[in-house]
């Protein structure tokens, strides 16, 4: 089984149905089985409202052996105004129940394998959120629970809430992660960048979740000139690191993207990778084939 997860945020908006299906079929053919989506993908697209990725996946899943596919989706980060992240729909119990029902309908399945609390909802007590999520596991609608984009103090607070109330554990923890360090002025809100300290905290929890990193390839920037990094990562140290990674990848006979995914995996973080074309996907995953 491929030790990576396929990200599908652009399916149904930036990537049409035919190309989305091609990428999904290639992923399965290469030995993949885990697929990542969310109910707000891709509300930031000019024609997106959220739910497009899940809907495309649902059409594809209907033609597959459901038992062979691990479906991961997320709730709680749908933009209320449809354009900004200033106000999200959050993780209040009623919204959790409504959101999972809508996701199951779009995904054309009776359960999801992993359900993430997508962005921490500081306006809802952690106990209320996790009791409701745990109830979904007990009834079989959800197999396992995860968190994404929680600050470290809130992760530790949630772990205490779970322990004290005998609730379902955090099985997966997903954060923004790549080998380059963002500039100190970079603001990815509401996304949370995984730091070394946060990584260490997650590794030493009594019930250690699988640690997952999204946006590992920064939209292909590792294949470009080191002088053309995204503004949020554009600094001398990162330029030097990209050049070093490109040299290492060349020596290994693979693309830099493939090498980056391998380095991240070997470090102990499961990467979520995306592609708009099956050939690019195969190239990116070549270190694991």
Mean pLDDT: 96
**End-to-end distance, in Å?**
10 Å
| Count of distinct strands | 8
Number of domains: 1
What is the CATH class designation?
Alpha Beta
Per the CATH scheme, the topology name is: TIM Barrel
Please report the number of helical segments.
9
Low-pLDDT runs of 5+ residues are none
CATH architecture: Alpha-Beta Barrel
Which strand order does the major sheet show? 1-2-3-4-5-6-7-8
Structural class: alpha/beta
Order of H and E elements? EHEHEHEHEHEHEHHEH
Q: Considering DSSP H and I runs of 4 or more, what fraction of the residues is helical?
A: 25-40%
Silhouette: globular
What does the radius of gyration come to?
A: 18 Å
Largest sheet: 8 strands, parallel, barrel
Can you offer a commentary on this structure?
This is Aldo/keto reductase. InterPro entries: AKR_Detox_Biosynth, Aldo/ket_reductase_CS, NAD(P)_OxRdtase_dom_sf, NADP_OxRdtase_dom. Residues 4-288 form the NADP-dependent oxidoreductase domain. With 289 residues, the protein is an alpha/beta fold. It has one domain (5-217, 269-275): NADP-dependent oxidoreductase domain (TIM Barrel, Alpha-Beta Barrel). It has nine helices and eight strands. It has helices at 17-29, 52-61, 93-107, 126-138, 152-164, 196-203, 236-252, 256-267, 278-284, and strands at residues 5-7, 34-36, 70-75, 112-117, 142-148, 170-176, 210-214, 270-273. Strands 1-2-3-4-5-6-7-8 form an eight-stranded parallel barrel, surrounded by four helices. Helix 1 (17-29) packs parallel to helix 9 and helix 7 packs across helix 8. It is globular. The chain starts with a strand and ends in a 5-residue tail after the last helix. The model has no long low-confidence stretch (mean pLDDT 96).
